[in-house]
Amino acid sequence: MMFKALLLQSWYNLSDQQLESQLARDLLFRRFVGIGWDDSVPDHSSIWRFRQKISEEGRLEYLLDRLNQGLTAADLYIKQGQVSIIDASVIEAKKSRPNKGADGKNTQDKEAGYNVKHSSDGRMKTTYGFKAYVNVNEDAFITSAITTAGNVHDSQCLEDLLTGTETAVYADSAYISHKHDALLKEKHIKNGILKRAYRNKPLTSDEKQHYGMVKPDT
């Protein structure tokens, strides 16, 4: 039941608190995870503890493999030649504020970290917590996932998320690096990582055409 809840959290990009609320009020969510009409739902603390526990014990990857095996047996999932779509969600830690406990020590979660994200309007948002990285295929089935502290940069996690069976990888510009370009080229995987334009260094015509920003010459 808790693993199914984590799947919904990843698919719908929900925080622990949002997942708790959604499980409490959404009948489809309750039916998916197997919670009855009169049953209580797990609170956000229980969700956080479960995710941490299975990640630390290395059981998350095992559970995802079992899930994919079941989908494959039911002809609902094709492993070969898949497309990998990679992204990360920021999850705020339960103890995110730098408060002092009775012993005078900082009560912040020691395994978390600060994530700084710039929005489209130029504002900066800082969150103390974790990052959940997910690789889904073209059918939105999760093929791999890892959890890190919030201060880990996205570019450090792409290689660990690859399944070894993909023919193409798509991700946002946070995953750009020469290392990834070389890695995907070596493995003959189509590189769909978005390139970023910089001041005095706009995208080339070929790059704009690749991302559908301009029509190809006829």
Notes on the structure:
By secondary structure, the protein is of the alpha/beta class. The protein folds into 2 domains: 1-57, no CATH class; 79-96 and 109-218, Nucleotidyltransferase, domain 5, CATH 3.30.420. It has 8 helices and 6 strands. It has helices spanning 2-11, 16-25, 27-33, 44-56, 59-73, 158-161, 178-186, 205-210, and strands at 82-92, 113-118, 124-136, 142-149, 166-171, 190-193. Strands 1, 2, 3, 4, 5 and 6 form a 6-stranded mixed β-sheet that branches. Strand 5 (166-171), helix 7 and strand 6 form a beta-alpha-beta unit. Helix 2 crosses helix 4. The termini are far apart.
Brief digest:
The protein has 218 residues and is α/β, with parallel strands linked by helices. It is 34% helix and 22% strand.
Task: Please describe the topology of this protein.
Layout: H1 2-11, H2 16-25, H3 27-33, H4 44-56, H5 59-73, E1 82-92, E2 113-118, E3 124-136, E4 142-149, H6 158-161, E5 166-171, H7 178-186, E6 190-193, H8 205-210
Parallel strand pairs: 1-5, 5-6
Antiparallel strand pairs: 1-3, 2-3, 3-4
> What is the H/E order?
HHHHHEEEEHEHEH
Query: Compute the gyration radius: what is it?
Result: 20 Å
Computed structural class: alpha/beta
Number of helices: 8
